[in-house]
Amino acid sequence: MKTLPVRRRKHLKFLTILMVLGIPVALLSINSFLISDRTRARSGSASPTPPSGRFADNRSAVPAAASKESRTVPPDTPEPDVRLREALTALRVEGLGPEQARKTLADLRAYLGSLPTSVAAEAMATFLATRSLDAATGLGFGIGENGFLKDHPSLRVALLDWLGQIDLPTAGIVARQILAAPTVADEWCVSLRNYARATPTSDSFDFLRGKTEELIRNPAWKKSPSVGYFEAFDVLVYTKSTQSTDLLGGLVSDRTPEGRPYAHASYLTLDRLVLEEPAEMFRQFTSHPDLIEARGQMIGNLFARADLRDDEQRGLVRSYLLDPSRSEQELEAFAGIYPNANFSVSQNLLTGNKPPAQTGLAARDRAALQVIDGWLADPAFKPILPHLQTMHRRLVTFVGQTAK
Hints:
The protein is mainly alpha-helical and 404 residues long. It is 57% helix and 4% strand. The longest helix is centred in the C-terminal third of the chain and has 19 residues, at 358-376.
């Protein structure tokens, strides 16, 4: 049997974590794939820069790049509300194919783009205020660059997406109105994005976290989840919602076949929160013994992301490893992947992909090797000596590779 390089084996090792969760690799992500930092693969897309803008009830406060106020509307141009209803009627035609739906949306988008920004934004906001007016497109919910959609499952979702591109202040107002009561999960998903970008400060985080948790818990939406339902989990990463561990932990602990998609989305969210706020997430895990009991091996994998150069993380990992309640399976899960430097690459609603630089990983590995050397000589670690030796061998290999 052909021996795979160590770094490739590490990647395969990470895929086996999904089997611990009971998640088929085919369910890895809606629109993402995993790569290993150890492969020196191309880095993912840069973090999107949220458009400028401030949430205020001022429709003239339009980002300069989007403003088309200087344009005049030809006298024979139909009223915007007429064109919107024409598109609604066209999309409701029975048997409409995806290409026809895309053309109808493209034509409407081009028309709205030809109008002064305030005219187009007011027309879309007025249409969206009439919640009963909508038409399915038969298309998916596809996220493209900068969190905007490539495909739109309904006319209302398309209008929300476009409004967030051409008039962010108005989009923020409309988003707040939509989030006031349940409509459709996909609409809430785009509204969360629009509101976050219209209010790009941490002051909005509590509201966004609360509404995202409300979306995830909604019984009807959870019973028949859409793609937008799962994409909304990204808002918890954007807001660094470590407080959502209770919700995510409950979902990730569900071992039933019906619960696997939710466990998968929750695991990815927890993992990305660890990358954002490692020390706080480690504290969250240790304060949730029920989660560790249900998903001990998964928690071991997440603890393996720790950067031992950081005093706080090092102390938390030390306490985690020396806790007498740790099972052999948990310790094997930690030691079998430490240092965990795998990450997922995807187009997300609000966040980007920030893979660590290879030089940073090398420095981290060297520092971790020194810490493990010290722990190997510490009598307190004698009960878990074999696991430390496993980590030590891997770190020696990584450090040797970067030294060449």
